[in-house]
């Protein structure tokens, strides 16, 4: 690679992507970034487009038709610098979404003249660049202008792709800024994010917060034409009123029969579900339930898959399914969102908590997780600081949560987890402490 080397894609990062299947619905493509950015926008001062987009090779960009467009024509516009490449599937997935958003904005007469996107390629050669650019209706830095592409990558500290950097016109206003989390904003808000000003984003976040603060099971799981869920095929109840779940801890399980990681996780979740139900027997004041939110391709797949589950389900192809996936920002499956007895969101990390703590994770609250983490910390105190694992050639070091970026996929058992792990500091290989298979060394080693 040239300006964005493939070394940014660590073996662990790629494994994480493999262990979470994309939802096969156009409303929520999968996004995977390698840079560890917070959700809040990173702000810098306004910029002058000519100074960063023009070079000794010329002061023009390429249109989608291949014509030259003067950089000066961008003055006064909101500009998105789109760092991407055709060799990485999350880029192509996001490009499809971005094209849709771009075209919608261009159809608005009051936006058309005030917004543009510039493609900054990380493709491997000119043919790949041309093929990828043919799917984009916006401008591009010429592939031959490697100097500018490298300079932009360095200037905006681009550590992973896809990356969309939003530039506000250099008008010296208070909200003039550089916003580096454009991908996150487009996924979360779509066309509503425009014009990407500080004021607009705060307005959207406030509306989002109000919506989440007022959510109830009824508002999430019902609509005018349906106020029930499907009972399990083996049960006597064909349908169960959503109202009957009030006061229960509820897990929303986003999954599909075609999802490879779910083939391992669903049986594990069934076991955990049954054990939690056993623990709660005789406790009238609390209960636990799971609702299957399907991304299956057809009714037959849905029905076949649902038969393997002992819980409830939203009917196949119900509009609530897409609404929930967007509302909870579900970008890959399997995923488990846990709601508390009051209908509010407890955690969106249910899958990781089940993998890590099994039935002990219930009721998935911060208080409960905090207790479990302290227990794990105590156990970690007695573990060796380094280990030599039979499944890896390098020495592994015991590291706490956050050292390797938080969640990880164990390279031995393929289970997702948080917390302590044995990690190779040379290549990013990680395993759960329980999965380490120490190599027995002789006295001469």
Automatic annotation (TrEMBL):
Reaction catalysed by this enzyme: [protein]-dithiol + NAD(+) = [protein]-disulfide + NADH + H(+); [protein]-dithiol + NADP(+) = [protein]-disulfide + NADPH + H(+)
The Thioredoxin domain, residue ranges: 51-213, 219-381
Region (Disordered) residue spans: 1-23
InterPro entries per record: C1-like_sf, DC1, Nucleoredoxin-like, Thioredoxin-like_fold, Thioredoxin-like_sf, Thioredoxin_domain
Record keywords: NAD, Oxidoreductase, Repeat
EC number: 1.8.1.8
Enzyme category, top tier: oxidoreductase
Superkingdom, natural source: Eukaryota
UniProt KW NAD keyword: yes
A molecular function (GO) term: protein-disulfide reductase [NAD(P)H] activity
Similarity field: Belongs to the nucleoredoxin family.
Protein name: protein-disulfide reductase
Lineage: Eukaryota, Viridiplantae, Streptophyta, Embryophyta, Tracheophyta
């Amino acid at each position: 690679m040239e300006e964005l080397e493939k070394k940014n894609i660590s073996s662990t990062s790629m494994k994480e992507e493999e262990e979470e299947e994309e939802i096969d619905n156009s409303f929520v493509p999968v996004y995977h970034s390698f840079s560890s950015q917070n959700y809040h926008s990173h702000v810098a001062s306004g910029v002058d487009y000519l100074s960063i987009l023009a070079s000794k090779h010329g002061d023009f960009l390429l249109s989608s038709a291949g014509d030259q467009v003067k950089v000066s024509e961008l003055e006064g516009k909101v500009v998105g610098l789109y760092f991407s490449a055709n060799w990485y599937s999350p880029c192509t997935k996001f490009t499809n979404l971005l094209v849709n958003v771009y075209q919608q904005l261009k159809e608005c007469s009051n936006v058309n003249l005030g917004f543009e996107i510039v493609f900054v390629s990380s493709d491997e050669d000119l043919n790949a660049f041309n093929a990828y650019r043919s799917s984009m209706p916006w401008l591009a830095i010429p592939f031959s202008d490697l100097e500018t592409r490298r300079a932009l990558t360095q200037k905006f500290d681009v550590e992973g792709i896809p990356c969309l950097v939003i530039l506000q016109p250099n008008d010296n206003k208070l909200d003039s800024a550089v916003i580096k989390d454009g991908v996150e904003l487009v996924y979360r808000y779509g066309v509503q994010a425009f014009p990407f000003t500080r004021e607009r984003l705060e307005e959207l976040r406030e509306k989002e917060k109000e919506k989440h603060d007022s959510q109830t099971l009824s508002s999430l799981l019902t609509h005018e034409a349906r106020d029930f869920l499907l009972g399990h095929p083996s049960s006597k109840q064909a349908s169960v009123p959503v109202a009957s779940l009030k006061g229960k801890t509820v897990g929303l399980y986003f999954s599909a029969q075609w999802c490879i990681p779910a083939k391992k996780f669903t049986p594990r979740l069934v076991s955990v579900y049954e054990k939690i139900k056993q623990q709660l027997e005789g406790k009238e004041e609390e209960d636990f339930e799971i609702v299957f939110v399907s991304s299956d391709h057809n009714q037959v797949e849905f029905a076949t898959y649902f038969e393997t589950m002992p819980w409830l389900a939203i009917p196949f192809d119900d509009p609530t399914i897409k609404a929930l996936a967007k509302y909870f920002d579900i970008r890959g499956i399997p995923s488990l969102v846990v709601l508390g007895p009051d209908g509010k969101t407890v955690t969106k990390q249910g899958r990781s908590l089940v993998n890590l703590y099994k039935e002990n994770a219930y009721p998935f609250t911060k208080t409960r997780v905090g207790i479990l983490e302290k227990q794990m910390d105590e156990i970690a105190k007695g573990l060796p600081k380094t280990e030599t694992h039979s499944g890896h050639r390098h020495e592994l070091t015991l590291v706490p949560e956050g050292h390797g970026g938080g969640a990880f996929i164990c390279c031995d058992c393929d289970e997702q987890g948080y917390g302590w792990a044995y990690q190779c500091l040379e290549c990013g290989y990680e395993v759960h402490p329980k999965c380490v298979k120490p190599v027995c060394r002789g006295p001469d080693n």
